[in-house]
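We both want to read discrete structure tokens more fluently, so let's practise on a single case. Would you write everything just below, so we can both look at the same thing?
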Amino acid sequence: MDKLLLLLPLILLLLTLATTAASQENCTRLCGNINVTRPFGIGSEPGCYVDGFELDCNRSESKLYLGNIEVISIDVFNARAEVYKSISWDCKRDPRERSRRSISMITSSPYTISSDRNKFTAIGCNTVAVFVGKSDQNNYSSGCVSLCDKGTFLSNGSCSGAGCCQAAVPRELRFFNTSLYSFPDQEGNYEWNDTFCSYSFVAEESWYSFKPSDLNETDFFRGNDGKVPLVLDWSIGAVGCEKAKLNSTSYACISSYSVCINAMNGPGYVCNCSPGYQGNPYEENGCRDIDECSMNSSSNPCKSRICVNLPGTYSCLCPKGTSRDPRLGGCLPDDARNIVLVGVCVGVGTLFLVLASFASWRILKVRDVQRRKEKFYQQNLVLLRAEQSSSDVALIERMKIYELDELEKATNNFDKARIVGGGGHGHVYKGILSDQHVVAIKKPKITNQSELGQFINEVFILSQTSHRNVVKFFGCCLQTEVPLLVFEFISGGTLSDHLSDIEKWEPLSFEDRLKIATEVSKALSYLHSEASITIFHRDIKSSNILLDEKNIAKLADFGASRSVNFEQTSITTVVQGTYGYLDPEYHQTGRLTEKSDVYSFGVILTELLSGKIAVPYKSGNTVRHLVMDFLVSLKENSLYKILDPLILKEGEEEIVQIVARLAEKCLKLSGSERPTMMVVEEELEAIRSKKAKKTKMRQYNSEKPIIDDCNSTLSLRDSGVMSYFGGTTTSSEASSRSSTTQYTMEMELKFKNERPR
């Protein structure tokens, strides 16, 4: 009786396995022409699938569905599934009554949007396409701009920004929404062809190739039945392999000779067959041995042609009377003397290697770290010297070279608690040097050749700058694969922090905002016109503007910057920058100029006026963008709707309108219509002077009108802006507009003569 009780658990286990095997045999594994293998199964057949992988088979249509999403294919080996997804479109004939349609897609565990197999694509003329996504932890926003300027020739091929544009898809997304927006040309007109349409979608990256005919009416939409193929990644559960193996009842890798692999795009894990096996690891005995020896003679892995298949591998044998490894050089006849001689040599050599290894082990262990430091030091020194020789600048002599040991000690071995900031290229740590001097140390996240070149470029750029409103560069450490950069430590956070987190940071007054804008304009004017070389920053944004304890602005992060000779006014580069701040003209042409920084500065002015960050945001069910809202508010004489309430309370309406008009000039689509940073700096100085006079006059209760010393450049009627605020423009005023640009050019030449390099 006792023996029977001991055998009872084993009997129950065998019954369970038998029941499972029987249920597997009754599972539907084909829907239309799609194989539905585990972990997938038909939802009406319990026990045929892993939880979360149930699908619906519409047998009348012979189609497979994930909820209401049609499934095209299932790839168990690569843990992917391909589905159909709807296209977002806009085909209104009258652009002033155009619709803004958006398409959403929501997936639940275990699915994520594949980031390496999909692309976000937009098709249209003068179209902004916005992509908003959400993972389990974060929200993402991205997008692209597609232009069709007069004279632009549209041709078949890849999306380059003319008629079609593309953007990458972030990792680990479970939800996304795509929206379309159209905007006027440089003259403010919607010059659409009556038959043009705009589309946006997320699809498998190799699926779409641009054709100009796709812009015509609904040809593209109808030709694809309103849907595109989208690739989904999938994984099992929400934990990695180590924790999943602890729960044997839910562990999905049930086949013998299967292995567990942590998912690459989100939480969970996937299963594969062990090397030497193939099949489905999610099924009982699904992984089967690969018989390498059954291959035809031309691909036999054994050169001796004597192959023995083994579980998960194979073995090659030499015929009798021969020896050697038959997989390498083939089999050779035996020679007893050679065997003995080889054995003696191998024995002596092995003994020597053991003794030599033991003797050198202690030395190598001590010197290994030092050798790596020296290797990286020499590599980076060569790159710095090459940069120095190409620019004829005493680069190395201008900076301090720090030891890695000193910086590790200063940051407590780069403790995560010391991280004070960072971005896509590296973390910034707070460090305290041995002399108690507090510094900021920038350390890269990854190590590759492009990252190294970017840091060398940042070293070169910073070594050429010395300005009160540019973060001070102390030196670098060359003993790491990518140099560590050492800067002055700025304790007041970034401008982005102050605008977006008013609970942590004290709100900025209008005077502070004007001062910050003026200081940033001084820094950019210095980089463009007064530094020893002309520098285009290329990544002006509020998170790259640091504020000290007195709210003095410091421009930082020169990793994307480019320098040119004095005689150059532009440089053609691969487009790089931050969406929301990027110059549309640079995005379309790849031609970087000083006016590209002017556009980004205009976005900064918009942020200072509104108190918002220039990234797409959601208002109700609509995705909006700060710059577009700002320009619309000017046109509709409703600037007050977008202004920060803190600014409205200060009652500086006239000054605010002048600053808003200056921001509008900086945000012109054409770079030739934007002012230079020297002109912007002078206008901001004049605005601050005017504000100071008005404040002083109010203090003395004087009603004497203030004379605007800058009315020729700051008049409310300039460039037709009066119409934005509900005013009218006379014919004489209209005729005088043509002289505005000429005056600006005269002022620009005057500033350059007064402020030589």
